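Below is a filled-in request sheet from our internal design queue. Each sheet records the structural input a requester submitted and the sequence that came back. We keep these sheets so that new team members can see what a complete request looks like end to end.

REQUESTER: design group, bay 2
PRIORITY: normal
MODE: inverse folding
CHAIN LENGTH: 243
BACKBONE (tokenized):
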């Protein structure tokens, strides 16, 4: 590619991790513990944390007795995650649009809105196809995504976030079916500008993507696994099984 996709450049910077450093490890751990208990996965089930970031979910999955591979496109994130790698917990730089060769999983987790990043919506189906190829029959797919309707209803157009000496100026808009976030800041006299964009996919969109290869079994609306309400739930969490 002549130019990196926005996620390939922004996610691989230290500034991305600085901006989002407030994300709660405790909340993530509690969610994964609750989720694994609900799924009733057998001990030592081989699972994939797809778009694992620095590995916080993968580490919890491993601590709960599962064999885990975490993958992410960000080399910096994987470099950090590999500090906790051990037998049964591996991390790889990998594009989610491709399947891992010779790997099969009992479950695939795609968490914390790690979907819908691409300009070409056909790439969404490529991701689902790759997941289906890697899952064993009746294997489980978990997608944890934003609630598109709530985002539309509650969008904050602009805000300023202070992280240490850096002031992040954030602008948001909804454009062409995506929520687009412009992130600007100055560090040591140099100006930086990055962008995030995520497709506003709803439950029906996911059902259409999944219909050929998956059965959607459950939908939840938050990390406590309460029922999904499109008007008020903070999240859209889908649990589907491979046909």
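RETURNED SEQUENCE:
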């Amino acid at each position: 590619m002549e130019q990196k996709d926005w996620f390939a450049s922004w996610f691989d910077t230290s500034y991305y991790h600085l901006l989002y450093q407030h994300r709660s490890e405790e909340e993530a751990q509690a969610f994964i513990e609750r989720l694994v208990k609900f799924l009733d996965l057998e001990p030592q089930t081989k699972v994939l944390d797809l778009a694992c970031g620095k590995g916080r979910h993968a580490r919890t999955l491993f601590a709960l007795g599962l064999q885990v591979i975490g993958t992410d496109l960000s080399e910096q994130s994987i470099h950090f995650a590999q500090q906790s790698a051990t037998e049964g917990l591996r991390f790889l730089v990998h594009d989610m649009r491709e399947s891992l060769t010779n790997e099969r999983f009992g479950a695939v987790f795609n968490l914390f809105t790690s979907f819908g990043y691409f300009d070409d919506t056909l790439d969404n189906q490529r991701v689902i196809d790759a997941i289906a190829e890697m899952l064993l029959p009746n294997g489980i797919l978990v997608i944890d995504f934003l609630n598109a309707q709530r985002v539309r209803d509650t969008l904050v157009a602009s805000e300023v976030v202070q992280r240490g000496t850096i002031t992040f100026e954030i602008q948001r808009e909804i454009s062409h079916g995506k929520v687009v976030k412009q992130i600007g800041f100055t560090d040591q006299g140099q100006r930086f500008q990055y962008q995030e964009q995520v497709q506003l996919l709803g439950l029906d969109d996911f059902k259409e993507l999944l219909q050929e290869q998956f059965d959607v079994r459950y939908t939840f609306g938050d990390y406590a696994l309460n029922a999904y309400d499109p008007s008020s739930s903070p999240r859209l969490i889908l649990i589907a099984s491979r046909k």
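SHEET NOTES:
- The mean pLDDT is 94.
- The chain is about 30% helix and 35% strand.
FILED BY: M.R.
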